[in-house]
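Hey team,

Sharing the Fumarylacetoacetate (FAA) hydrolase run so nobody has to redo it. Sequence (231 residues) first:
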Amino acid sequence: MLSVIQNPQRIALPIVGSSDLFPVRRVYCVGRNYAAHAREMGADPDREPPFFFMKPADALQIVGSEPTPHAYPPKTGNYHFEVEMVAALASGGSDIPAETALDHVYGYAVGLDMTRRDVQDEAKKMSRPWDTAKAADGSGPIGALHPVSVFGHPARGAITLSVDGEIRQKGDLADMIWSVAEQIAYLSGYFALQPGDLIFTGTPAGVGPVQRGQRMVAAIAGLGEITLDVV
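Structure output:
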């Protein structure tokens, strides 16, 4: 049986130390998972249940070891950076206990949840979905995966983002309100998680706008950094 159109290319992430690739299925993102960021967004960070949104897998932008051009999207004048650690699942299931949730993780990467903040703010006011704010083409820059078998599970360490050499976001992975294991457990109560799923695990305080011509460097201790030039 032939497809009536050309089959879309499946997004796959490079893996540190390997020529193999990690094919991506779904991309889940948790909102307001660092207390200071929750406060700067006007929310109460005191362990209210987590909430999630999704990006299309083809909104990811694979970033290599060299500076990579990142296109400023249309329909926004307030395009924000949000540095995040990304967890990639090698297996899944439903109702996964938090105690065993990390057994499902293949590896971790540095990522960015780029956001049309003006579009998101308008959607919030009108109680509308966030898709046009969060799912712009290329709005999920992501570096190579670091396998758990080699690098373990990062539970603490600096997570930062700089713009033109100035630190704009700075936090610690230990400051997450909901741990990676808890996020997996919670998500699996709503969705049957599958191999290839990614979870963007939240951003620290300091999110803000970036302009064409500026350089962003996102870094996480133990996972390296990715560099993007906004064009």
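The two ends are 42 Å apart (CA to CA).

Ping me if you want the raw files.
A.
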